[in-house]
Every structure is written in structure tokens, then in C-alpha cells.
Amino acid sequence: MGLSQALSTAMSGLRATQAAIALVGSNVANAETPGYVRKSIIQSAGVTGDYGSSVLLHGVDRQLDQYLQTQLRTETSGAAYADIRSTFLANLQNVYGNPAETGTIEDSFNKLLTAFQGLQTSPDSQSARISAVAAAQTMAQTLNAATQGIQALRANAEMGINDSIVTANNAMAQIAFINNQLQNNGKTDAATASLLDQRDQYITQLSSLMDIRTVVNDLNQVTVFTNSGVQLVGTEAAQLSFNPQGTMTPNTLYNVDPTKNNVGTITINFPHGGSYDLVSTNSIRSGKIAAYLELRDDTLVKAQTQIDQFAASMSSALSDKTTAGTAAPASVLPQVGYDLDLTGLQSGNVINVSYKDNTTGITHNLSIVRVDDPSVLPLSNTTTLDPNDEVLGIDFSGGMASVVSQLNAALGASDLQFSNPSGSTLRVLDDGAANRSDVLAASVTTTMSSLTSGNPQLPLFTDNGGLFSGAITASGSQMTGLAGRISVNTALLGDPSRTIVFSTSPLTAAGDTTRADFILAQLQTGSYRYSPQTGIGTTGAPFTGTLVNFAKQFISQQGEAATAAKQLADGQSVVLNTLQKKVTDASGVNIDDEMAHLLALQNAYSANARVMSSIKQMYDTLIQAM
Question: Residues 432, 335: contact at Cβ < 8 Å?
């Protein structure tokens, strides 16, 4: 090896050592910088002549475990999803309150029972009457407040989605920008490694918002997809759009049909045209956005339905009266059936007819529902809560003649005959001598509108001043949002004596407990079915029980859901922290290691400098000898 060759080798060693020292300095300086990945020089030995080797520099290497990074992004999505759900469900638990607290739904209902127990004991006491009405008002106000709390949480979820979309669009734009810088750069130097660090931070930020996967090409450019396969960003970024609706009400609901949807939805607009609805296609399945969507459109909607169902059942339990039909007169023989008085039948009220098909031996339970808006017809069998009935919606807006015509058209094949002998009477008969059908029973349930109808039933609670009858219109079921509109009958507020007086002719005696007994029995021991849309029970086996049992059921269910969400969030946090530590250990900067490396580099630098100094001395000696 000649002296010039030795000098060249030593100089390459100095250059490599200088570059490595510069990287150590960068590593140490960025030891606390979020997202910074430890870097090292990529070098190899280069053959020089027959004997020597120089050092070749190929760029900068990031000390990164790709598998750990992928796992970290997955768990980041899961942890963000779990954390948002845990926070919201804890807030929902605060809306419902704990059973031992005052001012909760359960507490207000118990106080309502106590007040009517007092009225039952002292029916002629004006104080007891006023207390009963006041307790009912508190019950209504508690349900109103719960509705406001739930809808405020839904509005927060809506705004959370909006904020997340803004953040996602910025992250995707930055990823595309860095991708293009890498394409134009084509190097693997420190600047490139720094760009990769920045891009990874934006990808991690995006992974907290939604579940993603990445594909990297030979130029270190990354393409980001959702786990469902929708491309979000490559060298160009797609744009997410969201149309927040602001104020939320119980009727502000998501629907896959755009013409019926009245909450914000997420659309991805691709760089070269075309768009895609990410909500209806369930394209986002984890991360903050998925949690917000689930809360807004499912969890909190069920919570609202629970208190709406409670309000509806409580209201109907006191105001609805079921009257059995009277046997049809002998003049219609050999046909047999019943006459039903439909006076006072409200939209949403039900006529029940039980008949037997003698040909098949099957007994049918028919629920005929009054409808005043024909646009909602036909009704589904899930309209009522009876899992064994057959529902038939009938438009009453055209009068009794139209009602009879619709019934005969719909049920003529069942060998039933409907007629209107007079006034508001509906007659249902079997087929007589042919004996292909038998009408077994018939009844009508009507909502009482008067406080002094002569019946113990009364409209204690109203729907924003009007009757609650379970009406179904083009805007949906009257039950939706009832908890936010329920109020005490203003006539009772003005005259609390109507909690006892149910008849003015003859006048109910001051000490009569008929109405108080009825109210207390309905509220305390009456058993009712509850909609499976509350998340309790199923269509085939709806939850059945008293009002207090139902309240305890959904409050308990919510408490369990909040606890489970907290446990999941805590578990996800542990997993995420464990992975972050592994990534830090593998890719982060360890100051002790860097200092040890720096000492080694200093020694290497000194050694290379010593070689160069020795070569200089040899050159000097050679020149002097000449």
C-alpha cells in the first residue's frame, strides 16, 4: 500500500467518523423530541488497490422496528376509541345518576310513589294533593333534564367528529407533501430521515382518528388506507368532508337514506373525482371518529330511547283505558262477534281482535292501530310490543265508512266481516254458518283526555300539553323524544283536587281513594312491555316488568357499560404504554449509549488523525532524503 493510498483511507475514516459524530450530536439533541427516531450512519468497506480498504458512506439509517410501529398504530386506534367511549359513558352515568343520589330518575320516581301513597292515605288533604302533583312535576322535569344531558353529549360527539375531520385532513395533506419531497429528493441522508420522522408522526396522529394500514414503496413513499380498503393518501391526499348539524334533538337521527338523514355524515372526496360515504359503508371501525359515530348514532340514541320508553309507559299506564267489546246482537245470527265503541280513539290507539282460523286451527291476535297519516302505512309487526300479534295500520282520516272498507279489504280473506251499525261503533263478526272462523275476543284501548270522565284513568302527564297516545306520523313515533317534552297536565296544576275527583256527576266523594288506588297500582305493580330498541330485551322476547324494574334495569345496564368501558380503556392504555416503551427502547435515544458511542468515535477520530500525522512525517522524511 502506497502512502497516498494510506492517506486516502485515513481521510475516508475521518469523514465517516465526522458524519457519525454529527449524528450522535443530533441524537442527543433530540432525545426528548416526540417522534424522533435514533439514527446511525450506513457505511461499508471499500476496496482500494490490492491491500487497503476505505470507508464508503451510503446514507443514514433510522433504527426502527417496522412490526412494532405497525402494532403501535393499531393499538393507538384502539386506545383512542376506548378512551372516548369511556369518557362519554362516564358522563352519561352522571346524567342518569347513581341510585343512592337525589335528583335521579329512580329517586324522582320513588318520591312520586311516596307522594301518591300519602294521597292514598289522606285523599281529602289538599296538602297531599298538591304534593302528589308537585312530585309528578319533579318526575317530568328530571326526565326533561336527562334528555338535555343526553342530547348535549350527542352534540359533543358531533363536534368531536368535526374536529377530528379537520385534524385528519391536515395530517393527510402533510403526508402527501412529504411523500412528494421524498420523490424529488431520492436520497437517504439525514434530511430524508428527518422527513420520515415527521411523516411517521402524522401517520400516528391519523391512526388515533381511524384504523389505518400503510404500504411503503422503493422511494420510501407511503400509501395510507383504511382497514376497510379505502385509500386516504399517496402522493395526493383525499379530502374528508363533514356537515355538522349543531343542535341535537331526539329526532335528529342518522339514516342511511340521505333524504331521511338529519345528522352529519363523512364523505371522502378523491383527488381525481368521485366520492364515497364512509359512514353508511362502515369504513371507519376504530379510533376517535368510530367512537364518536357509535356514541352519536347508537349508544346515546338507545339511552334516549330508554328514558322515552319510561316516560311513555308511565304516561300510558295512567291514561289508557282498555274496554272489552260487547256481544253483537242476536239479530246478526248465525254470525257471532262483538261491537266496539271507538269514541275517543286517538291516533296510535289500538283495537285488539282475537280470532281462530278453523281451517288451520291457528289463533290470530290482531292489533288494529289508528293512523291519521296514510304516508306511514303499512305498519310493521314491530309497531306494537306484543311479539305474538299481527299489526294492521288503518287510516282513520276518512271516517268510519273508509275504516270499514279498509278492514274488509285487508281481512276479508280471513272470513271476518267489519261494519259500522251506528255512530262510532265498529262491529266485527265471524263468517256464521260456514264456520271457517270464530271471533274469540275484541277490545279497544283509548287514551283518556278528560280528568273527570268518570273513570280512574287520567292524563296526568302530557306531551308538551297534548295527549300522548303513541301516534305514528311521517316524522316518526310520538314516543321519540317524549322524555324531553313530558309535562304535568296543566289542568291538574290548576286544580290538584282532580287527583281524587274523577267524576263531577255524581261528584266524587272527598275521601274516595279510587283514583289514588289506581294510580299507585299502575305505577307500583303494573307490568308492561318495553321496546327492544332500548337495548333491553329482544323483539321476540321483550323485557316485561314494572316501571321501577325497568328503570333499575337500564340504569344498572348503563352503570355496567360505563364500568366495562373504563376497564377496556385502562387495558388499552396499558397495552399502548407497553408498546410505546418497546418502540422507545428499540428506536429512541439512550443518552448513555450515545455517550459511549461518542467516546468510541473520538478514539477512532484520533486514530485516523494519528495515521494521517504519521504519513505526513513519512512524506517529510522522504522529501528530506531527496
Answer: yes
d(CA 567, CA 409): 57
Residue type present at position 612 = M
597: how many CB neighbours lie within 10 A of its CB? 17
Nearest to 309, CA basis, from 547, 127, 131: 547
β-bridge mates for residue 487, sequence order: 462
Burial class (CB in 10 A: 0-12, 13-18, 19+), 345: buried
Beta partners for 322?
A: 445
If phi > 0 it is left, if psi is from -120 to 50 it is alpha, else beta; for residue 548 that is alpha
| CA–CA gap between residue 394 and residue 407 (Å, rounded) | 7
Residue written as grid cell 320516581? 109
- The neighbouring-strand residues paired with 441 are 354
Do the strands 350-357 and 362-371 form a parallel or antiparallel pair, or are they unpaired? antiparallel
Model confidence over 201-231: pLDDT tens digits? Answer: 999 999 999 999 999 888 788 999 999 999 9
CA 492 to chain centre: 38
- Identify the helix (H) or strand (E) that includes residue 73: helix 66-96
- Rounded-to-integer distance, Cα 385 and Cα 544, Å: 10
pLDDT digits (tens, 9 = 90+) for 593-626: 767 777 787 777 787 778 778 877 887 787 888 7
Given a contact cutoff of 8 angstroms between Cβ atoms, the answer to whether 271 and 238 are in contact is yes
Closest C-alpha to 135, from 517, 493, 425, 573: 493
Q: Checking DSSP bridges between strand 362-371 and strand 389-395, what pairing results, if any?
A: parallel
Please state, in angstroms and rounded to a whole number, the distance separating the CA atoms of residues 56 and 44: 5
185 pLDDT tier (thresholds 50, 70, 90): low
Report whether 583 contacts 65 (CB < 8 A): yes
Q: What is the spatial distance between Cα 125 and Cα 496, in angstroms, rounded to a whole number?
A: 10
Residue that wins the pLDDT comparison between 380 and 584: 380
Q: Residue 339 in contact with residue 421, Cβ under 8 Å? A: yes
Round to whole Å and give the CA distance between 61 and 322: 81
**19 neighbors 605 (Cβ within 8 angstroms):** no
CB within 8 A of 487, min separation 6: which ones? 137, 140, 144, 461, 462, 464, 465
Instruction: Give CA–CA dist 515/448, Å, rounded.
Output: 13
Strand (E) or helix (H) holding 18: helix 3-29
Q: Which helix (H) or strand (E) holds 498?
A: none
CB-based contact 255:261 (threshold 8 Å):
yes
Question: What CA–CA distance (Å, rounded) separates 612 from 211?
Answer: 56
What letter represents residue 40's amino acid?
Answer: S
Distance CA 430, CA 337 (A): 6
* Per-residue CA distances from 12 to 57, 58, 592, 609, 614 (Å): 9, 13, 27, 11, 16
| Rounded Cα–Cα distance for residues 588 and 248 (Å) | 45
430-487 tens-digit pLDDT:
999 899 999 999 999 999 999 999 999 999 999 999 999 999 999 899 999 999 999 9
Residue 611, C-beta contacts closer than 8 angstroms, at least 6 positions apart = 6, 9, 10, 13
Whether residue 374 has a cis bond before it, omega within 30° of 0:
no
